[in-house]
Amino acid sequence: MTTAARRLPRWLGQAVLTGVGLLPAAWLGLGVLRDTLGANPVETLEHESGEWTLRLLLATLAVTPLRRAFGWTWLAPYRRTLGLLAFGYCCLHLSIYALVDLWGAWDTLVEDVLERPYITVGFTGFLLLVPLAVTSTRAWMRRLGRRWVVLHRLVYAAAIAGCVHFLWLVKADLREPLIYASVLALLLAARLWPRKRLATNE
Amino acid sequence: MLIRRNRFAESPEREVTDRALYLRRREFLRATGCGLGGLWLAACGRADDATAASADHSPDKSPVRSPDGFTTDETPTPFEDATTYNNFYEFGTDKGDPSDNAGSLVTKPWSVAIEGEVAKPGSVPLEEILAATPAVERIYRLRCVEAWSMVIPWRGLPLGQVLARFEPTSKAKYVAFKTLYDPKQMPGQRRSVLDWPYREGLRMDEAMHPLALLATGMYGRDLPNQNGAPLRLVVPWKYGFKSIKSIVSIRLQETQPETTWNVSAPKEYGFYANVNPEVDHPRWSQKREKRIGDFHRTRTLMFNGYEEQVAGLYSGMDLHANY
Fold this sequence. Notes:
The structure holds 2 protein chains of 2 kinds.
Chain A: H1 2-7, H2 10-21, H3 23-34, H4 41-70, H5 78-101, H6 106-115, H7 117-134, H8 138-144, H9 146-151, H10 154-169, H11 175-201
Helix pairs in contact in A: 2-5, 3-4, 4-5, 4-10, 4-11, 5-7, 6-7, 7-10, 10-11
Chain B: H1 2-10, H2 12-23, H3 25-44, H4 79-82, H5 97-101, E1 111-116, E2 122-125, H6 126-132, E3 136-143, E4 148-158, H7 159-165, E5 174-179, E6 199-203, H8 204-208, E7 213-218, E8 221-222, E9 232-234, E10 247-253, H9 260-264, E11 288-291, E12 298-299, H10 307-310
Parallel strand pairs in B: 1-10, 4-11
Antiparallel strand pairs in B: 1-2, 3-4, 4-7, 5-6, 5-10, 7-8, 7-9, 11-12
C-alpha cells in the first residue's frame, strides 16, 4: 500500500485523493435529487457536511505525525489536498445552514452567529480556515516564508473550534463528538512527543 | 387587590373555554370522528387505511375548520416521516433509531398503574381505560424543543376525562407520568444517557385541559411502537418532550414531580416547557422551526398556535422564569 502510494506521481495521487474526497458530496447531491436523505434532508446535509469537515480536518492533522513517526515523507503533499477538501466541506456546511435552512430569516442568522455560543464557535472555526485556504498555494508559501508555518498553526484552533461546536450542540448523547475530540487530542499530543524524541536522539 | 384576587380565584377564562367545548362536544366528535378521518386519508392518498373512514360519509371537498381550534387544517406530515424521524431515547439517540429498534417493545398485554391522590387507585388494563372513555380524533401541531415540527392526526382520549374516572382527591395538584423501564425491551436504557425511567408531569389544570390527550393511535391506526405505543401523552402547546411515550404509571400528587429533561439539564428544560418563541433555549433560538417537509424555517407561534385555548392557564405567570 505505502509502496504503491510512494510510486504514484504526486499530481495523480492528489487527483485521486480529491476525487475520493468529493464522493461524500456527490452522494449527498444524489440523495437530494432522489429524495433519500430522510424526513429532514436539510438537517442531514448539515450534519453530514459538518462531520466530513471534521473528519478531513483530523486527516489533515494526521499527516505530519504519521510522516514523522513512520518516515512517510510521501504523505506530505497530500496535506494540502486534505486541508482544502476540509475547507470545501466547511463552506458547504455553512452555505446549507445560512442559505437553505435559514433562508430569509436573516435576523435569526445574525443572532445565531453573534449570540449562540456553539454557532459563534463554529463560525469562528470557519473564519480561521479562510486565510489558510487562501495562502495554501506555493506562491503564498514562498511569499510568507517562515511566517507561513506560524500562520498555518491556526488550523489547531480551527479544529478545536470544530470539536467544541459539535460537543456544544448535542442534547444528551456526547459519544460521537467525544470521539472526534479524543482523536484531535491525540493528534495534538503527538506533535509534542516525537520532537522530544528526535531531540534526545540527536 | 380585591379584584385581582377574585379574578384569580374564579378563573373565568378557563371555564368559558371548557364550557364552549362541552356545548359543542357532540358536533365536534361527529366532525372529527367521521369527516376528518376520511378527509386526511384522502388527502394523503393512503387508501390502505380507508377502513378507518366510514363509507357513509364521503370526504368533504372543503377543509373542515373546527371553530374551537382543536384541529388544524394544515397538511399532516407524511406518515413515513412521522414514523422514521423520532426522539425516543429508550431506543437510541439517532432520529432513525426508534423505528429501527422499537420492534422489541411488547405492548400487549399492557396496564397502567393509577396511583397517589385518587379515590380509585389500581393497576388498570389498557382495554379497560379505552372502553371507559370515547375516543376522539384531533390533528395537532407538534413542536420539538429542537426547533422542528410536524402535523399529526391523533386518536386518543381526553386526558381529563380519563383522570376524572379515578376520582382525584383535593390533594391532587399535579400528575406524574412514567415510561416503561425495561432495558431488555428498550435497548437505549442500557446506557445512562438520561435518568431512566423517563418521567414527565403536568399541573392538574393543564392535565384537565381538553386539548391534553392520551393518544392510542395516529393516522387512523394504532400507534407504531416508535411513536409511543400503546399509550402516550400529547400536549400540543408544549415542547414534544413533555408528551411522554409508552406510559406505565400515572400518579396524582400534591407536589410538582421531577421530570427527566429538567433533571438532565435544569437550565435548558423547565417543568412547563410551553412552546414560546420569546424564550430561547440557552443554546439555540426558538423563534423559528423547521416544519418537516419544508426546506426553510417558519415562525414559531406562541403556545404552538394554541394561545387562545391555553393562555388562560398561565395568566399572571412569568413565562421567562417558568420556561
